[in-house]
Amino acid sequence: MFGFKGISGAITGALMALGASSASAYVIDFTSASTGTTGSLFQGAVTWTMTASDVLNNSQAFDGNSAPSGTGLSFQTDGYGVGARDDEITTTSRRQEWIRVSFSSAVLIDAIYFLDLFVSPDQSSLEVGQASINGGFPIISLYATDIAGSGAPGFVGATFAPIAVTEIFFTVLSSNDNYGFADGALAGIGIAPVPVPAAGLMLLGALGGLAALRRRKTA
C-alpha cells in the first residue's frame, strides 16, 4: 500500500509527465492560406486574436526551395507580416512593425516559428526575430541561419519547456541581412495539449487528495 511519500511522488511524476508530453501537440499555422487573424483552441474553450501595427498580410506564397519537416506547418504561404503590400514584419530607422497574439485565457506554448530571417551573404550580420511573452518576460530571440539569396526559406524555430501565456508580442530587431531591410514573417506558435485551467485543476485535485490522506493518517 502506498504511503504519503509514495503518493506524493506519484503525483509529482504525473505532473512532470504532463509537462513533458506537451511538445508539438498543436500549432497555430500562420503559413496556411486559410488561417485568419482569429481562431480557437481546445474545442472553443480558448480563443486567440492577432493584431498588428498595420494591416496584417499572409498573401505571399511560400518561396523557399524546400519546406522544413516536423513542424506541423503547411508552408503554403510565407507566414504573416505587416502592411498591405508586405508579407513581413519590418524594422527600419523610422519604424518598428509588430504583431501581437492575445489569448482569451492562459495557454501553454512550447514553440515559436519564423520565416524569412536571413544571414547576410558575407555573413557579417543576421536578422533576429523576437517574441516577448506577457508584456516582456521571457524574451525569446530567434537568430537567422539561412544565407540571403540562397533560395533557403529563412526558417528558424525555437522549442522550449511550456510557458503559460496570455499575450505574445512579435517583432524583428534592427540588425539585418544587408540584403534589404531587417524583416521576417511569423510562421507559427506551438501549443501544449492541456489548457492552463485544466492543468491547474489537476494540481488542485492532487493537492486536495494529499491533504485528505494526511488528515486520515493523523486521525
What is the number of helical segments per DSSP (H or I, 4+ residues)?
A: 2
Termini separation comes to 18 Å
Helix fraction bin: 10-25%
The CATH class of the largest domain is identified as: Mainly Beta
Structural class: alpha+beta
- Quick one: overall form? globular
Computed Rg: 21 Å
CATH fold node name of the largest domain: Jelly Rolls
Write structural notes for this entry:
It is a single chain. The protein has helices at residues 4-20, 196-218; strands at residues 26-29, 38-41, 46-52, 56-57, 81-82, 89-91, 99-115, 118-119, 128-133, 139-143, 146-147, 156-172, 182-191. The chain has 219 residues and is α+β, with helices and mostly antiparallel strands. It folds into two domains: 1-21 and 194-219; 23-192, Jelly Rolls. The strands form three sheets. Strands 1, 2, 3, 6, 7, 9, 10, 12 and 13 form a nine-stranded antiparallel beta sheet that branches. A two-stranded antiparallel ribbon has the order 4-5. Strands 8-11 form a two-stranded parallel ribbon. α1 (4-20) runs antiparallel to α2 (196-218). The chain is globular. The two termini are 18 Å apart. The relative contact order is 0.22. The model is unreliable at 1-24, 203-213 and 215-219 (pLDDT under 50).
Task: Please name the defining characteristics of this protein.
219 residues; alpha+beta; Jelly Rolls; 2 domains; two-stranded antiparallel ribbon; 2 helices; 13 strands; disordered N terminus
